[in-house]
Amino acid sequence: MRLTPLVNHWWNVPLYVTARGLTTSRIPYRGRAFELWFDFVAHQLVLETSEGTVSTLKLEPRTVADFYKECMAMLRAADIDVHVWRMPVEVPDPIPLDEDTVHASYDAAWVDTFWRILLSVDAVFHQFRARYVGKVSPVHFFWGSFDLAVTRFSGRRAPERPGADAMTREAYSHEVSSVGFWPGSGTMTGPAFYSYTVPEPKGFREAQARPEGARFDAGFGEFLLDYDVVRGSPVPNPAPSAALLEFCQSTYEAGADLGNWDRAALER
Fold first, then answer.
1. Measuring CA to CA, which residue among 113, 141, 248 is closest to residue 194?
2. Rounded to 5 degrees, what are φ and ψ at 12?
3. Quick one: three-class SS letters along 57-78?
4. CA–CA distances in Å: residue 44 to residues 36, 38, 39, 76, 243
5. Could you tell me the CA-to-CA distances from 172 to 133, 160, 196, 229 in Å, in that order?
6. Which of 32, 94, 236, 249 has the fewest CB atoms below 10 angstroms from its CB?
């Protein structure tokens, strides 16, 4: 966040899906550049620099404190002196990274499963993104809320959100329709896809979302579609991809139509 210039709605901050995992993308640093990426094939964190340095840190069961210590040492060894805020965000009861000896699990099999889900969802989200000629975000992974998402914009500014912090004000400065995937969060019973429109137009909650199984959740204030429903969808082949595209399109159309978006000018 400090080393890269602010791009619309913090698009410089998320991670991005690669053929082997997740990456920060290129980060400029004192006339040089570096990149950190999670390799979920070999299960390692990789540091690469513009000077040719390649360093790795194995992803395996260990405490957060130990991992943090070794990660910072790897950066310093490459002559990269960066400050990292030690407090985790968007998690209950956070423990400073260098003091967390409580969390120490790493299940390679589940990591592989999660990454392969991200690969397939990322491909569908890119297909959905390509249908839009208006302003649209990249498909990106937010490390705080732990979701993969893509967002469309109407082109109009949104009303100010009373009491919003700086992050939220920037994120929702314009009208948006967003769709994403969560592996599970809060009161969710399992992984699910979500979709919302901000500001929420009148009648949005009563709109008919597709495919069958999609529903508006008043607690989240968003449409949800369980991951297992998508996996077992009877929609014509390729079934899961078609079902997810239908969810993306139908919820976007509901928000755009009720919000009077200029769809003729915004869609391919």
1. 248
2. -80, -10
3. EECCCCCHHHHHHHHHHHHHHC
4. 11, 6, 5, 18, 33
5. 20, 9, 12, 30
6. 236
Give the pair of three-digit tokens for residue 225: 């579609």
Which residues lie below 8 Å from residue 3, measured CB to CB, with a gap of 6+?
Answer: 27, 28, 29, 82
Q: In this predicted structure, what is the pLDDT of residue 239? A: 84
Burial of 146: CB neighbours in 10 Å, binned 0-12, 13-18, 19+: middle
Closest CA to 52 of 29, 73, 78, 77: 78
pLDDT for res 235: 55
pLDDT range class, residue 7, cuts 50, 70, 90 = very high
How far apart CA 183 and CA 230 sit, in angstroms, is 14
Q: What is the C-alpha to C-alpha distance for residues 210 and 110, in angstroms, rounded to an integer?
A: 29
And the tokens for 189?
Answer: 């019973």
Residue 15: closest CA among 31, 32, 39, 33: 39
**DSSP one-letter code for 15:** B
| pLDDT at 144 (0 to 100) | 87
**Cβ burial 52-68 (10 Å sphere, 16+ → b, else e):** eeebebebeebebbebb
The mean per-residue pLDDT over the stretch 239-261 comes to 96
CA separation for the pair 111, 158 (Å, rounded): 37
Question: What is the end-to-end Cα distance of the chain in Å, rounded?
Answer: 33
